[in-house]
Design a protein that fits this description.
This is N-acetyltransferase domain-containing protein. This protein is α+β, with helices and mostly antiparallel strands and 217 residues long. It is elongated and about 80 Å long. Strand 1 and strand 2 (96-106) form a beta hairpin. 53% of the residues lie in helices and 14% in strands. The chain has a four-stranded mixed β-sheet with strand order 1-2-3-4, covered by helices on one side. The chain folds into two domains: 3-68; 73-216, Gcn5-related N-acetyltransferase (GNAT) (Aminopeptidase), CATH 3.40.630. It is built from nine helices and four strands, in the order ααααββαααβαβα. It has helices at 3-10, 13-31, 40-62, 64-70, 109-112, 116-120, 124-128, 149-165, 190-216; strands at 87-93, 96-106, 132-140, 171-173.
């Protein structure tokens, strides 16, 4: 079960109101129904059962993320146009891998239409000139977020793209990146949309910093 998805459902106001209202109903109609003989054991049993059902529903809603993660295998990292496979940038703290970024370098449309015979006579780096960098995934371990490690991954993705595709190469998130698929009902997706917006702003800052550093050289 994806922790972020589960948290989004558990802490959503609609979910909390529904759960608290159900508890209140049990208290009102079961525990308080008989003022002389309050059935505490029955009320507790119903409340516990309701809570278990609540958690099971959340697990069911977020379980699709596990299926989605399983589909992102080596084939997902291969470029459909016959180009080079995606590049995985990693961030480690000691022996522990705490962050990863999947970068795809797409050649320019002109380079992709070159005949196979001519393409063999050109180096891979040359064929990427005029291309762009597409970030297909970017993630950090929750225990290491807020330490600037994710920003360093973005900076490296920008630097690598500019080195391989040219200083004017664009770098952006793929429209269908790893976190773009929303498996939860639309009601619970607001937090993921906000995360997407923050990621886009962070990438814009990395590009701006690269351009400023380039001018200083």
């Amino acid at each position: 079960m994806d922790p972020a998805a589960a948290k989004a459902v558990i802490l959503h106001p609609v979910s909390l109101v529904a759960l608290l209202s159900s508890w209140a109903a049990i208290y009102r109609f079961v525990y308080m129904s008989d003022m002389e003989e309050r059935d505490a054991s029955r009320a507790l049993m119903l409340a516990s059962g309701l809570t278990m059902l609540y958690l099971a529903a959340i697990r069911f809603l977020s379980s699709a993320y596990a299926t989605l993660a399983d589909s992102m295998d080596q084939n997902w990292l291969r470029a459909p146009y016959g180009g080079q496979d995606d590049l995985i940038l990693g961030a480690k703290v000691g022996p522990l891998l705490v962050g990863a970024l999947v970068l795809r370098l797409e050649p320019s449309k002109r380079a992709s239409t070159v005949s196979p015979h001519k393409r063999k006579n050109r180096s891979r780096s040359a064929s990427l000139k005029g291309g762009k960098g597409i970030i297909r995934a970017w993630t950090m371990a929750s225990s290491h977020r807020g330490r600037g490690i994710g920003k360093e991954l973005l900076n490296e993705a920008v630097r690598y793209t500019k080195d391989k595709c040219g200083k004017d190469a664009q770098v952006g998130f793929a429209q269908e990146h790893a976190h773009s698929v929303m498996v939860l009902p639309a009601l619970f997706n607001a937090i993921f949309r906000r995360n997407e917006a923050r990621a886009a702003k962070a990438l814009d800052r990395s590009v701006e910093e690269w351009e400023l550093n380039k001018k200083k050289r």
